[in-house]
Specification:
Number of strands: 0
Structural class: mainly alpha
Number of helices: 5
CATH class: Mainly Alpha
Distance between the termini: 45 Å
Strand content: under 5%
Helix content: 55-70%
Bound molecules: heme C
Oligomer: single chain
Length: 106
């Protein structure tokens, strides 16, 4: 086995693993900076703008049942008063923020 290939493969693996960790923390950061003002830090939409705009709680049994794909689509395309983020966030950022919402729903 070519030694250089082994080194490259190891490097690729390490950088992928680092990306996964970064994506998780940036999901939380994105949520706190762009979503929490309407959805509340805990997803309950129980404060301020969330209440005023009748933002639905992300913590109901129905919300927990919603598919991850449908959440990604709503964040990308928007829905009613929910702004579209398809041009503001990258695909991986949207996946990360939806993954973060899933952790709030546990
Ligand atoms: C200006 C207030 C506002 C902001 C900011 C906002 N949302 Fe929303 N969001 C809403 C409203 C209102 C709805 C309900 C839309 C409807 O059903 O008509 C909603 C719905 C959703 C839903 C679907 C919930 C369900 O069960 O149907 C998801 C998922 C969601 N938002 C995620 C996000 C994420 C992620 C962000 C940040 C990137 C974000 N929202 C930022 C107002 C907001």
């Amino acid at each position: 086995m070519n030694r250089r290939k082994t080194v490259l493969a190891t490097l690729a693996f390490v950088s992928l693993a680092t990306c996964t960790v970064l994506a998780q923390s940036s999901g939380a950061d994105t949520y706190k900076s762009k979503c929490a003002m309407c959805h509340s830090a805990d997803g309950s939409a129980s404060s301020g703008a969330g209440k005023a705009m009748h933002v639905p709680s992300l913590l109901t049994p129905e919300a927990k049942k919603a598919s991850t794909a449908s959440y990604v689509a709503i964040v990308k395309e928007g829905k009613g008063k929910m702004p579209a983020y398809g041009t503001k966030l990258s695909g991986p950022e949207i996946n990360a923020v939806v993954a973060y919402i899933r952790t709030l729903q546990k």
